[in-house]
Write a structure and sequence with these properties.
Elements: E1 2-6, H1 12-21, E2 26-30, E3 43-46, E4 72-75, H2 77-84, E5 89-106, E6 121-132, E7 137-143, E8 150-153, E9 158-161, H3 173-184, H4 193-208, E10 212-217, H5 221-234, E11 238-244, H6 252-262, E12 267-271, H7 273-280, H8 286-306, E13 311-315, H9 320-329, E14 353-355, H10 363-372, H11 377-380, H12 400-419, E15 428-442, E16 445-458, E17 466-467, H13 472-485, E18 489-494
Parallel strand pairs: 1-2, 1-3, 3-4, 4-9, 10-11, 10-13, 11-12, 13-14, 16-18
Antiparallel strand pairs: 5-6, 5-7, 7-8, 8-9, 15-16, 16-17
Helix pairs in contact: 4-5, 4-10, 5-10, 7-8, 12-13
The chain binds xanthosine-5'-monophosphate.
Length: 507
């Protein structure tokens, strides 16, 4: 188990991912909340930070329980922090030190740089620089512009690097982390999807016992994997609820329900389409629509959960990035992007305790865990789909006719992507129904019908995204198929906006 102390770098999560890729478990904690159970951690990594160590407001935690007592790797700000407070010198750098650099010197016979040689590309991102090493420091590597790119402290298992091993552009970054964690700190590489499943199932059994658990399934990856884990642990004491809000994709409710039943899950499908559409009638403001959907969902879910007698727990598919984001929001160091509705969790109306089996793992790990439990590949590879569903892709007010049109268009687009082998190359795709009519001509007749937009984006986490350069031929075929088959649509456009400044969804 490895502890990562977060000083607010945008790359902190990447450090955790790289460590996990080495099959080593790690946890991120904010620098101002160092965990008390330090004995549980075999090694510590200090992250980078947007701050300057020379500033009074910068993070200056007390590391006396860590330094010299455990193997320590200090990255970027961490490296400067150690230097600044232990007899070294940190000052603003004269040259810009961002982006690509190459190691021009690497000290020989150092375990830390095993299998990494001069010339190796590293990624820099800092405005201060270490002018003098701290007391006991030995230089391990330099780049052309950065003399003190890596050092160790004699008499301790403390290593420090100015560059970022966690980004892919540091080509030997993973090797460096392996050298430190495996060869130097001797941390065991036992974190695998299968071991995660075993441990989590045992944890759930211990925590939940013979209690009943309620879980809301969405058809998405996270809630499905959470459900299968809980099912493994407690069998039919897990009660899943899958709500049809009438805003799902074409046939999605029945298809997904069937798939869940095939997996042996105890699922109740609740068709509440009419309730949702009634509540939405006449609403065209995006926020009003979202709120209405949220409210009906809570009502429906509450009704259903109350029918499960003696339910004691609510299970959620919260994953690690949501948890980290909410830690940041609640006093951690990184900039607040958004607060996540899943975390901090219990809606007042449900007096249930919370169980979140995925709260310590990343999306790609969720997929690996799912695959190791035999969950269908297609289900695990599904594109993200927003909770409010097609409601935020039908601009303006919502009617069942508009839902039908958009379901048809979406199905043609998504099936087309699958048939052309493009689906897995796209992070998320969907269609948007615009609130305008345009003039067309079909078989000598004038038409005056709806416009739909197609959107396909690449992304890693949905926070930033770029539109996908889909082949013209594919767009051409898809457009023809939509206009020829979907009554009420006579024009198709393709969305070529990135996020930011646009967003992925239109509402
Ligand atoms: P935006 O539109 O903010 O979307 O660029 C980023 C990602 O989040 C999804 N999204 C939502 N998911 N409830 C959800 O569960 C929502 O209200 C919601 N709004 C957007 C969106 O589909 C994309 O993957």
């Amino acid at each position: 188990n490895v502890l990562i102390l977060d000083f607010g770098s945008q790359y902190t999560q990447l450090i955790a991912r790289r460590v996990r890729e080495l099959n080593i478990y790690c946890e991120i904690h904010p620098y101002n909340k160092i965990p008390e159970n330090l004995n549980d951690f075999k090694a510590v990594i200090l992250s980078g930070s947007p701050s300057s160590v020379r500033s009074d407001e910068a993070p200056h935690p007390d590391l006396s329980e860590i330094r010299g007592k455990k193997p320590l790797l200090a990255v970027c700000y961490g490296a400067q922090y150690l230097a600044h407070f232990s007899g070294g010198l940190v000052a603003p750098s004269n040259t810009r030190e961002y982006g690509r650099a190459n190691l021009s010197f690497v000290k020989e016979n150092e375990d830390f740089f095993k299998n990494i040689s001069e010339g190796s590309q590293v990624w820099m991102s800092h405005s201060d620089t270490i002018k003098e090493l701290p007391t006991g420091g030995t230089l391990l590597a330099s780049t052309h512009d950065v003399q003190n790119a890596a050092y160790k402290i004699e008499g301790e298992t403390t290593y420090a690097i100015q560059f970022h091993p966690e980004v892919y552009h540091s080509t030997d970054g993973k090797q460096l982390l392996e050298n430190f964690l495996v060869n130097i700190a001797e941390v065991a590489q036992t974190w695998t999807p299968a071991s995660f499943v075993d441990e989590t199932v045992a944890d759930i059994k211990a925590k939940v016992g013979n209690d009943k658990v309620v879980l809301g399934l969405s058809g998405g990856v996270d809630s499905t994997v959470a459900a299968v884990l809980l099912h493994k642990a407690i069998g039919s004491n897990l009660h899943c609820i899958f709500v049809n809000n009438g805003l799902l994709r074409k046939n999605e409710f029945t298809d997904v329900l069937k798939q869940y039943e095939g997996m042996g899950l105890n699922v109740k499908g609740v068709d509440a389409s009419a309730r949702f559409l009634n509540e939405l009638a006449g609403l065209s403001d995006p926020e009003a629509k979202r709120k209405a959907i949220g409210k009906v969902f809570i009502d429906v879910f509450d009704d259903e959960a109350n029918q499960i007698e003696d339910a004691k727990w609510l299970a959620q598919g919260t994953i690690y990035p949501d948890v980290i984001e909410s830690v940041s929001v609640n006093g951690g160091p990184s900039a607040t992007i958004k607060s996540h509705h899943n975390v901090g969790g219990l809606p007042d109306f449900m007096k249930l305790k919370i169980v979140e089996p995925l709260r310590m793992i990343f999306k790609d790990e969720v997929r690996r865990v799912g695959a190791s439990m035999g969950i269908d590949k297609e289900l695990l590879g599904r594109h993200p789909f927003p909770g409010p569903g097609l409601a935020i892709r039908i601009l303006g007010d919502i009617t069942s006719e508009k839902v039908r049109i958009l379901q048809e268009v979406d199905a043609i687009f998504i099936n087309g992507l699958k048939e052309s082998g493009l689906y897995n190359k796209v992070w998320q795709a969907g269609a948007i129904l615009l609130p305008v009519n345009s003039v067309g001509v079909m078989g000598d007749e004038r038409t005056y019908e709806k416009v739909v937009a197609l959107r396909a984006v690449e992304s890693t986490d949905g926070m930033t995204a770029d539109w996908v350069n889909l082949p013209y031929e594919f767009l051409q075929k898809t457009s023809n198929k939509i206009i020829n088959n979907v009554k009420g649509v006579n024009r198709v456009v393709y969305d070529i906006s990135s996020k930011p400044p646009a967003t992925i969804e239109w509402e």
